[in-house]
Amino acid sequence: MTEERAPASQTLSRGIRILEVLADAREPLTIDEIARRLDVHRSVAYRLLRTLEDHGLIARDANGHIALGARMAALAAGVAHDLQAEALPELTDVANELGMTCFLSVLDHDECVTLASVEPRHAVASVAQRPGTRHPVTRGAPGKAILSLVPGASWPSGADAHLRDEVTDAATRGWFESHDEVIPSLRAVAVPLAIRGRGAAAIAVVYLASPHAPAEIAARLARSAGVIRAALGG
Amino acid sequence: MTEERAPASQTLSRGIRILEVLADAREPLTIDEIARRLDVHRSVAYRLLRTLEDHGLIARDANGHIALGARMAALAAGVAHDLQAEALPELTDVANELGMTCFLSVLDHDECVTLASVEPRHAVASVAQRPGTRHPVTRGAPGKAILSLVPGASWPSGADAHLRDEVTDAATRGWFESHDEVIPSLRAVAVPLAIRGRGAAAIAVVYLASPHAPAEIAARLARSAGVIRAALGG
DNA sequence: ATGCGTGTGTTCTATATTCGAACACATTGT
DNA sequence: ACAATGTGTTCGAATATAGAACACACGCAT
Description:
The structure is a homodimer.
Chain A: H1 10-24, H2 31-38, H3 42-54, E1 58-60, E2 66-68, H4 70-76, H5 81-98, E3 101-108, E4 111-118, E5 134-136, H6 141-147, H7 161-173, E6 176-179, E7 187-193, E8 201-207, H8 214-231
Helix pairs in contact in A: 1-3, 2-3, 5-8
The first copy, chain A, binds a DNA duplex through helix 3.
């Protein structure tokens, strides 16, 4: 059944799993605890940790406990670097004009990952879409906007017929909205952002209440999406 | 001389170097090019890349070329997670009250890394300190603020006597300023942010010109620093 | 103090894992 | 048609790694 033909590197895979474990854990961990969670011998974890430390990806606090290092953030700055660079000014403009948190999301397998976000002056809440947050792409306006760019055949398994109809319907008008889907009582409006040769993306805003009509918001987002796409030759 | 007794993991180190190479390269690379830059056999790079791909840390564009994947951003969100969470609302307040970009930096070996930044409404420029940017800690106001928290013995090699005097002088008044140090014609004001058991950090603002006196700005920053430190039990 | 539990760092050998060459194939441009 | 470039796969040899075992430091209870 499971056509397991993946000749993966054991050592590298374990090293990455350490990073994943540390990102999940909200607190610094000991070597023993990390080895336990990876289900490897402690001396293995030790060598891997030493290597990660050499590269600055992890750091030890005063107690010797281990957490992700600041250089992880520096590495992540290279993700879709040009897209972020072009999108950020636009996100800022939209956030300030509409008074809403505005953010950029991209597709990552079956999840919707926020790459950058900008808060306006009177942010309703600190529920701000922090960069790096992710949730299933089948939920929320940005997710649906992204799905509208993806060939139906390669949709994730969580997509039912109802979702397909909803997405294809909204795709014709060019924008998407959601309510209570990712964060309770929060609304979102999103437009897809397709760039040549790059994965699907979307820009969106979230808000509690707004003087603007959703269609009006969508029009503003679409304008910025056009600017970004033009800048990247998409 | 160099007591090289670092039993590091070759495989993991090479895998990480791939990520570093991809972060540096502003464009997607081929497997051959990556293997060339790592100076390893292509089949080695291939297996490592396959593993990185399994974990979502890299992705291929339409041409099959390779770039950092969105999940890198998700991983990086775990860096100093609690610090970021506590600092972000404060950064936002400061940015909006002073009308300047406000950001959080931490120490990473001999570099100053920006973890989070917030732009105000009327941002003078999109020179916004993007999260992940880094520069030598010996330059700029945030760097000096961070250095003031570091025992002199463990200062980086780039620190001369002049810098030491400057930092110790400013440390007594509690805040730091710089001009033309990191970005030409830009000024910055920073205050140190020491948190129990965690690495040195600082919050700062950058601006071109300001109606506020530097001391006034510093006082506002210090207030937020106090709030953050209190929240984290530092 | 003594013992106990936990955590870190180091050394060592068998072997599983990785290395690197070679092959097959697709694509692109000359 | 041919070379040039890139990708994916196989395979034996060699080496980097896995995991056990040891030495040590620290905190905490008995």
